[in-house]
Known about the structure:
The structure is a homodimer. By secondary structure, chain A is mainly alpha-helical. Chain A has a domain at 2-72: Multidrug-efflux Transporter Regulator, Chain: A, Domain 2 (Orthogonal Bundle). Helix content of chain A is 65%, strand content 6%. The first copy, chain A, has five helices and three strands; from the N terminus they run βααββααα. The first copy, chain A, has helices spanning 5-11, 16-24, 42-56, 61-72, 77-119, and strands at residues 2-3, 31-32, 38-41. In chain A, helix 1 packs across helix 2. The interface between A and B is large, with 43 and 43 residues.
Amino acid sequence: MNxxxxxxxxxxxTTEHTLRYYTDIDxxxxxxxxxxxxxxxxxxxxxxxxxxxxKNCGTPVKEIKRYFELCRLEESDENLQARYxxxxxxxxxxxxxxxxxxxxxxxxxxxxxHYEDILTGRIPDDMNPANWS
Amino acid sequence: MNxxxxxxxxxxxTTEHTLRYYTDIDxxxxxxxxxxxxxxxxxxxxxxxxxxxxKNCGTPVKEIKRYFELCRLEESDENLQARYxxxxxxxxxxxxxxxxxxxxxxxxxxxxxHYEDILTGRIPDDMNPANWS
DNA sequence: CTATTGACCTCGGGTTACACGAAGTTGTTA
DNA sequence: TAACAACTTCGTGTAACCCGAGGTCAATAG
Lengths: 133, 133
């Protein structure tokens, strides 16, 4: 299956700008049609998923590139170990981010509840415990 | 309680660079001592917590500033409504990020397991279902 | 058969949120 | 009294895009 840049951007909830950037820096591979338009396929989609998840871990683009290059290289033991180490580290980051996200949600939920209490007149604003509301 | 820029940076797991940046753009208020050094206190710490959590929601610095300015203004109904809307929106973002984080963790956990399977010789690499490993 | 439309292209400068380093100031130890 | 540690400002650098101008190309509308 083939996709235009627009379709591909929609599929991954990103922008055409970003996709052009990724292909320009050779992070995301793509073909070109007769009119020089980028065409993406299911293989591109797989790389794209990788990019998105690694980015969610906080991995910088350069590191993602390094990892992908390792993936395309010959399959030595060293190579596998290197890739394993990257994934191991980024997985840890993912877990940290998850914890962070949980804490943030708890805080924001409380904050919102506080506002609703004020707006429904249940408590006055100066009882705000966090000093900013 | 008072804190130097170094202590404050450690408290919030950030850098002195970032704190200088925040104070320079008037996002984070701070006092100065006789030698012109920044001093932070517990009130700064409260604002800092706000900054961190709002940032975790993905809020841009300008929006955080806007929100904080509303907090310092007079307490009209309009003002409260505006702040409420900001928190409401950012809380939603926080929930989205939490979901994202969960998905990412699941993906990375699976990826890691895959590598461990390869490295312990349980399966060959070409059985990799995701096309990149 | 032109003309407009729409989706794409490249290229260069702009933006956000910092990071970094040089050069200077200040207050405390050897 | 010298050196050090911790800070200061100021200006440039960086990452990961965003944006817009100006051009190409294929398909439809008049």
